[in-house]
Design a protein that fits this description.
The complex is a heterotrimer of chains A (438), B (274) and C (176). Helix content of chain A is 13%, strand content 43%. With 438 residues, chain A is mainly β. Chain A has two domains: 121 residues, 3-Layer(aba) Sandwich (Rossmann fold); 264 residues, 6 Propeller (Neuraminidase), CATH 2.120.10. In chain A, the strands form seven sheets. In chain A, strands 2, 3, 4, 5, 6 and 7 form a six-stranded mixed sheet that branches. Chain A has a four-stranded antiparallel sheet with strand order 10-9-8-31, with no helix packed on it. A four-stranded antiparallel sheet of chain A has the order 11-12-13-14, with no helix packed on it. Chain B is elongated and about 80 Å long. A three-stranded antiparallel sheet of chain B has the order 2-1-3, with helices on one face. Chain B is built from seven helices and three strands. Chain C has a domain of 113 residues: 60s Ribosomal Protein L30, Chain: A. Chain C has 176 residues and is an alpha+beta fold. The radius of gyration of chain C is 22 Å and the shape is globular. The longest helix of chain C has 21 residues. Chain C has a four-stranded mixed sheet. The chains are: A mainly beta (438), B mainly alpha (274), C alpha+beta (176). Chains in contact: A-B, A-C. Strand 1 of chain A pairs parallel with strand 3 of chain B.
């Protein structure tokens, strides 16, 4: 062994070491990203396979596609462009789908489990990395296939965007047809996409202001069936119904407290001055919240049940106010932009308020950030009304006039995507989105 | 700056320690699988590169991914026969190792240019003086040994000269990198990569200001992204997924104007401001 | 296959039958289980409550001359009674004073613009304006009741001022 070499090379090594050591510690190029884009996520939803006619003609993939594209945050690959139609994750060649421009691939199948039970299985794959992100199975009766499809959409939406999906939810609304004075009013419950509609109340007198209980089982509403206004609560599944306020004058604008035990109501009395009251459903005890000759109505609870937002024209025209529920609380004005701001509703996270605002000569839906006071007008119609948040806070349903009829519309909370939900030829109005029930 | 001085001080201490120990065969410092009886230039080079293995060198801030991607393969052990083959193999290994060294020099140079210049000059002076002393000692030893050993010594000398030449080349490359950096060519390239990744990052709703996530991206020459590893991230799963997707979607990354500037490893920090 | 299909059909039919509750149809009668709740906001005495509870079927009422006019129209966002409206109110005021056994229900309405429950309040304001005018002219309070339909019962369908102007109204309905 050569002893001369080691010494020499050792010194050379030491030399280099001294020169390079501090630099060797940080051998990376640093990049900082401060913004991105918000493009619709390209996703391929492959038509689900169906064994033994299990899907009964229901196109699960199409329902998922409509759900996702309706949010404006996804762009589905056209079926005509699909060269393969796998139905299992192991049959998916992600490189092919990635080359076709997709970030994600959804595959699935419907099968019969037993008599009266079908199963919907699906997988969600990331085409860029090849990773499988989700796989789920939903079982149920064939009649519940649409619901299963919406639950698939919920999983996909949440995995990709990190926000809970609200596709497997319900809405309630009022439908009016016929010509005055012979109109027919119906209170209807339907899936959030308008399908599976069911009439829960029918009347020759007006029905209005439906409101879902926090557990999604009851609807409170105003009915004029006795030629005067009265508030009822009705259990949707059974039809069981109770009248909870038929006091003299106005009985209106019911809103369930977050704990489901109280209703915020507007009572006018014989003097006809509408004010807000809290009605305890069990004891029928009333607690007054506002007073004065102004119109105070359209109350909405904060998420913690400690304060109430409402419409008041005490300053001349309708504006939104907030008042605490504790005795002696004074209302504070919340809206300051424009001459008409009414019908407040809170987002599920309590940070945003949606309302009807006058925008020029039009009545439109606007969202106000409660912390900053910034207002964003979301809709573009002439007579938009009755906005209601989806339970995930990502969309708002409301009614608007189109083609001479009142129809339901959904808009994303950033205002960029809207969708029409056409329901028959009747006028539909007063939509209200049910809370999550699962 | 203080860290650099500390490192150099510790290195000087190491040198002194090593000099005192020079009578004894230096202990094998390599953690790689190399035949320990042949202590070659290449062996020591390979041993030095992952900085964390040098006692008592402080460990660099650990990236989330496993370090030492710069070492691609262990140096192959030479065949155990003729000294000439051995020398040739050693020379080849040395060239390979030296080439790797150049890459390491590239990687290192961008971070500490000014400090390195001063430190290098000073260290060079110090080390060269020591080298001179060691060489005198070695020459005396060689004179007392057999002809075969003298031959080997000559071969080793040639090898050392080759390493010196490599060192010279890497130093020149470093200077070029420094010049490029000073002239803004480097920052242009960084801007191009930034723009590419920014355009490829599809932000989910939860990627709000306040989110800070780091991604360690590995590319090969040509810009193809071959590996993406998530570092610290205070975002939810959707944010994490979106930034990993962004790196792959941005591939191939734009090439640097000078191939010598190519950087294999990128540390990409996502910090949305709006 | 056929067995499965018919089984599924059977199950579907059964499940549909199970959850299909006939929508509740009202014929104008009050709902079955009423929670007693006539107190609270009621400011007058029992008389008002009786009058309100008595609001049932409409009757024809007087048809002579201006009395045939039952509708008072209003300007946008206003509950001020115009001159023409005042004439109609006056005529009915005299009639009601003369026939103290008769009752009327004053139905306030608005056009469709704006939010629905706020419009209930506006309609009520209009009905109250007519009520005040009648009271001032000697009509007994027991003869009067008010209800607001807001924008829920338009007289004319339409989304322009022609329709709207016809919907901003108070209707005087004679009841028994």
């Amino acid at each position: 062994m050569n002893t001369e070499n080691p010494v020499r090379t050792f010194w050379h090594a030491a030399l280099l070491c001294v020169a390079l050591l501090p630099a060797v510690a940080f051998a990376q190029l640093k990049i900082e990203i401060t913004s991105g884009v918000t493009n619709p996520v390209p996703v391929a939803i492959v038509p689900f396979s169906s064994t033994g006619g299990a899907d009964g003609g229901v196109d699960i993939a199409q329902i998922i596609q409509s759900d996702l594209e309706g949010t404006g945050q996804f762009k589905a690959m056209p079926r005509a462009a699909m060269t393969q139609t796998p139905s299992r994750a192991q049959d998916v060649q992600t490189a092919v789908w990635k080359a076709a421009g997709n970030d994600y691939v959804v595959v699935g199948r419907v099968s019969v489990l037993s008599a009266g039970q079908v199963a919907v299985d699906f997988e969600l794959l990331n085409a860029l990395t090849g990773q499988q992100l989700a796989d789920s199975r939903f079982t149920g009766a064939p009649a519940a296939l649409r619901d299963a499809a919406h639950r698939c959409s919920d999983v996909i939406y949440e995995k990709i965007l990190g926000v809970r999906g609200a596709f497997a939810t319900r809405v309630a609304y009022v439908s009016v047809d016929g010509q005055p004075p012979a109109q027919r009013y119906q209170l209807i419950v339907a899936d959030a996409d308008g399908a599976n509609s069911r009439v829960v109340l029918e009347s020759r007198q007006p029905v209005m202001s439906p409101a879902w209980s926090p557990d999604g089982q009851w609807l409170a509403y105003v009915s004029f069936e006795n030629k005067r206004a009265a508030i009822y609560v009705q259990q949707v599944s059974s039809g069981e119904r109770r009248q909870v306020s038929a006091r003299v004058g106005i009985n209106g604008a019911p809103a369930w407290s977050p704990d489901g035990h109280k209703l915020l109501v507007t009572l006018g009395g014989s003097a006809g001055t509408p004010n807000l009251y809290i009605l305890d459903l069990a004891s029928q005890q009333l607690t007054r919240l506002t007073e004065g000759p102004a119109i105070d109505t359209e109350g909405a609870w904060s998420a913690d049940g400690q304060s109430v937002y409402f419409t008041s024209d005490r300053s001349g025209g309708p504006q939104v106010y907030r008042v605490g529920v504790e005795p002696g609380a004074k209302p504070r004005r919340i809206t300051f932009g424009g001459a008409y701001n009414a019908r407040p509703r809170l987002s599920p996270d309590g940070t945003q308020l949606v309302m009807v605002t006058q925008d020029g000569a039009n009545y439109r839906i606007a969202v106000q950030d409660l912390a900053s006071g910034t207002v964003r007008v979301l809709s573009h119609g002439r007579l938009d009304a009755s906005p209601s948040f989806a339970p995930n806070g990502a969309m708002i349903i409301y009614s608007g006039i189109e083609g001479g009829h009142s129809i339901l519309q959904r808009v994303s909370v950033d205002g960029l995507t809207s969708q029409r939900l056409r329901a028959d030829a009747a006028d539909v109005r007063d939509p209200v989105w049910a809370p999550f029930t699962r | 700056m203080g860290l650099s001085v500390l490192l150099h001080g510790m290195l000087v201490a190491l040198l002194v320690y090593g000099w005192v120990q020079f009578r004894h065969p230096p202990p094998p410092v390599s953690a790689l699988a190399i035949d320990a009886t042949v202590v070659s230039q290449a062996t020591l080079d390979a041993a030095r590169r992952p900085a964390a293995q040098l006692p008592p060198a402080p460990t660099p801030p650990p990236p989330a991914s496993s370090p030492a991607p710069v070492v691609d393969q262990p140096v192959p052990p030479p065949p155990p026969d003729a000294a000439a083959q051995q020398a040739e193999a050693q020379a080849e290994a040395a060239r390979k190792a030296a080439a790797e060294q150049v890459e390491a020099a590239h990687a290192a140079a961008q971070q500490q240019a000014a400090e390195r210049e001063a430190a290098r000059e000073q260290a060079e002076r110090e080390a060269q003086a020591k080298v001179k002393a060691a060489e005198e000692l070695a020459a005396r030893k060689a004179a007392a040994q057999a002809e075969a050993q003298a031959k080997a010594a000559a071969a080793a000398k040639a090898q050392a000269q080759a390493s010196q030449a490599e060192l010279q080349r890497s130093l020149e490359a470093e200077e070029r990198v420094d010049a490029a950096r000073a002239s803004g060519v480097m920052s242009n390239w960084v801007s191009q990569i930034t723009a590419r990744i920014q355009g490829a990052w599809n932000r989910p709703p939860s990627a709000r200001p306040g989110i800070e996530c780091t991604l360690y991206v590995t590319q090969v020459p040509g810009g193809e992204v071959t590996d993406v590893k998530l570092g610290t991230c205070n975002g939810d799963d959707a944010v994490k997924q979106s930034i990993v997707d962004a790196a792959y979607r941005a591939s191939p990354l734009p090439a640097p104007p000078d191939p010598a500037l190519f950087e294999r490893r990128l540390e990409v920090t996502f910090r949305p401001t709006d | 296959m056929r067995k499965i299909l018919s089984l599924m059909l059977l199950v579907t039919v059964m499940s549909l039958g199970a959850c299909a509750h006939k929508p509740i149809k009202d014929n104008g009668a009050a709902a079955s289980s009423q929670v007693p709740g006539q107190g609270g906001a009621n400011s007058a005495g029992g008389a008002d409550a009786n009058a309100a509870a008595g609001s049932g079927a409409d009757v024809a009422g007087p048809q002579e001359g201006v009395l045939a006019q039952r509708i008072i129209y209003f300007a946008f966002d206003s509950s001020d009674i115009s001159a023409e409206g005042a004439a109609v109110v006056s005529a009915h005021a005299h009639y009601l004073v003369a026939h103290a056994n008769l009752h009327v229900r004053l139905e306030g309405n608005t056009d469709e613009r704006g939010s629905r429950e706020y419009n209930i309040g506006l309609g009520e304001r209009r009905a109250q304006a007519v009520k005040r005018s009648l009271l001032l002219q000697g009509v007994a309070e027991t003869q009067l009741s008010t209800v607001s339909y807001g924008a829920e019962r338009p007289a004319v369908e339409g989304h322009d001022e022609t329709a709207w102007s016809k919907n901003r109204r108070v209707v005087i309905n004679y009841v028994q």
